[in-house]
Amino acid sequence: MIAIVKPDELITRREEISVSSKEDGAVKEILSRIRREGDKAVRELTAQFDGVELSTFEVTDVEIEAAVSKVSSEVRDALTLAAKRIRKYHERQKQNSWMDTEEDGTVLGQLIRPLQKVGLYVPGGRAAYPSTVLMTAIPAAVAGVEEVIMVTPPDSNGEVPSPTLVAAREAGVTRIYKIGGAQAIAALAYGTESISSVDKIVGPGNAYVAHAKRLVYGQVDIDSIAGPSEIVVIADEHANARYIAADLISQAEHDPMASAVLLTPSTFLAEKVTNELLEQCEGLPRRKIATTSLINHGALCITQDLNEAMELANRLAPEHLELMVEDPWRWVGAIKNAGALFLGQWSPEAVGDYLAGPNHVLPTNGTARFFSPLSVEDFSKKTSLISYSQKALLRDGPAVIAIAEAEGLTGHAASIRARIEKEE
């Protein structure tokens, strides 16, 4: 079911995310249509791709209240608890504006302000992802964003899954629109008659959504280009094979393109995990997806020792990294690249997806080398503040003039000289 590969093969097996000319052309045409035709194009594309004709896109308060009544109290309570945990974690990320005053009267500082309007893309249609609503909307609310606009595909009845709407209410989403795909990204970026343009778009989606985000970047900001989900588990001979297999499957069931990898110096453990994977996949509702992922993109790698496993993990820079070793805290310093790090057998990746508090919108496909999880900082912007005193300008002016003239920018130099020569 799952390939046994050598350490060097792991890096070369990772597929580069690419966009076909067909996908590129289709997304560009959708973006162009939305810019030209607005709501008309959104309506026609929703009928084409989602199989439903909508007269209006916005979810009403009546629909939200109806959704609340359809969701069990157990699920509502779980979403409330998750929201509380996520909010508490992200409150710790808030930064404050600051200013420093020098002895000569110069004031330097940084102003931190929230974005005014952001768009959240939440996958939907055949599935519900209330956790993604919480993970994207709550950091925006904590940052102080004024308008949080959510888009999500409707089902064939023109409805949004009830848990998704309950989560949106819990997280304080301002407006919800029943649109998805590249057309939803275009509507958020350019605006239509009924949908306002935003400053930034965040959230995961399929290949068309990801490419649309890539193409509208610059018109608006985006979080990142998300690839298929991935997990790497580092385990020693003491690890529980049943737990490891369950965690590998938890990612494999996301998508046939998802990647699940075990790094271990124990051949015996690898064999036990292989058997567990076969057993646990039987009867799994998403068995076909999980097995396709494990066969095509999964891997078991026998390393010389845990040091080599840690080095390989850093090269892979995975979205999720579990340390299923006897003393996981000992190895934290060895990990340089990972979207989220899970320590010990009682910290499965799934608890991070839903309830622990840290964000589950994470860098994928090796981008944890330079990207970070979605955070409050993603929903704010910084402005530098400079207030020079006369004394400071007289002191620093000659140095500014020297640099400006070295660059050939005599106008810059003149703007300084006009002030300091007059005072001299």
Structure explained in plain terms:
With 424 residues, this protein is of the alpha/beta class. The protein folds into 3 domains: 3-13 and 227-356, Rossmann fold, CATH 3.40.50; 21-222, Nitrogenase molybdenum iron protein domain (Rossmann fold, 3-Layer(aba) Sandwich); 389-423, no CATH class. The protein has 16 helices and 14 strands. The protein has helices at 7-13, 21-37, 39-50, 61-70, 73-91, 130-143, 162-171, 181-190, 207-216, 241-252, 267-281, 287-297, 306-316, 349-354, 390-406, 410-423; strands at residues 3-5, 98-101, 107-114, 117-121, 147-151, 175-177, 200-202, 221-222, 230-235, 259-264, 299-302, 320-324, 340-343, 380-387. The strands form 3 sheets. Strands 1-11-10-9-12-13 form a 6-stranded parallel β-sheet, with helices on both faces. A 5-stranded parallel β-sheet has the order 6-5-4-7-8, with helices on both faces. NAD(+) binds at residues 121, 183, 206. Belongs to the histidinol dehydrogenase family.
Keywords for this entry:
16 helices; alpha/beta; Rossmann fold; six-stranded parallel beta sheet; single chain; five-stranded parallel beta sheet
What is this entry, summarized?
This protein is of the alpha/beta class.
